[in-house]
Amino acid sequence: MEKPAELVFIPSPGIGHLVSTVEIAKLLVSRDDQLLITVLIMKFPSDSLGTDAYIESFTHSSNSKRIKFINLPQVNTDDIKGNSGSFMIDFIASQQPHVKDAVTKLAESETRLAGFVIDMFCTSMIDVANEFGVPTYVFFTSGAAALGLMFHLQALRDHDGKYKDCTEFKDSDAELLTPSFVNPLPAAKVIPGRLLGKETANSFLNIIKRFRGTKGILVNTFTELEPHPLHALLSDAEIPPVYPVGPLLNLNNDKNSVGLDEAKQKSDILKWLDDQPPLSVVFLCFGSMGSFGEDQVKEIAQALENVGHRFLWSLRRPPPEGKIGFPSDYDDHRGVFPEGFLDRTVGTGKVIGWAPQNAILAHPSVGGFVSHCGWNSTLESLWHGVPVATWPLYAEQQLNAFELVKELGLAVEIDMSYRNSSPVLVSAQKIERGIREVMELNSDIRKRVREMSVKSKKALMDGGSSYSSLGRFINQIFN
To answer: What InterPro entries would the database entry show (predicted)?
Structure first.
């Protein structure tokens, strides 16, 4: 009998990367009983609590015998010498000896080491996979259009000597034609920020260049959502095979709380939503890293008062100036709102800190979502059929917003070019207009989002586009 095949998954540090990695691991073991998966965990000290709680919650699941976790030794982050733009890459590279030790022990087991599946920032681990003589696959957690742009920019830099420095686009009105987008891109507004700085751009494009030497790329998307960029990627002979396998969502992730406080908060939030009419609530949430200063908070509050819709607002305080870390909840809301705001909106609005996003988007009272357009949040909103008003903050979120609004017609715009690294105040009038549009009950956008919701679920069913694509990937592993 053939030995079971063992895949080694290496996500980047952070609970968000870990959760999406585990979702595809669960999907794979559910499809083939000869697959085993080991997930190697790299942790920053600040990530330990949430990561440990998530892993603990998973140990009681039905997949726990075929998906196991190994915590790699923690590295002293003070020893990482890279600049702020390359810190993550340098931190991951420092873990190579620990990964090699862990995989050496796995290779001595009764299973057959079949390959590495690495997160996009973990390309330094390709060298480790090569030492073991096994293929490497990339798990790209964003969309196909973003992936296509990255390859295009890397090709402009490296192919045929036609070097193009992405920093030329900064503060310019230049438009960029790229195979993965139908419309020309307003480059300075939507290219990810790390590609607009010379040092960080080269570091990032070097990562993308290494993608070309892998055996395949798994992308968290589905054909019905991104047919054009997927066609462009699959038509390029210099790009490895691309497998759209999404939407990969942890729809139960709200259950993986770190204590009773979150469970009580979730109960209170859902109870409040139960008292609201269908499609009457606009939900504002900007991800685990999303926060605003007091001036911007006041503009949002003013917009909510002006528009008059019921609202649920997840509000986070930025880290102290000069500090790197996650936002925290505002302990005292009153100090940051216009005077009397909470009193005037009592009963029609609720301000919260932490938000059980999936449970909220699934609630029938929620009719619109003001979002930072992180890819996971984008897929969640489409899955639940809730239209988005775009307000990106960082990374590839501006690009996601452009795709949703201009390419796909699945969202309305509040601001597509806002960056939290150089914030410009978004006016209450602009926010109000976006909320009114996203809450319109009979809009074409709402209709298209509902249709895409149905398609997203069909993609994962037996015979669906993503189901079939994942089958091709599994065949690649065993062949």
So the answer is: UDP-glycosyltransf_plant (IPR050481), UDP_glucos_trans (IPR002213), UDP_glycos_trans_CS (IPR035595)
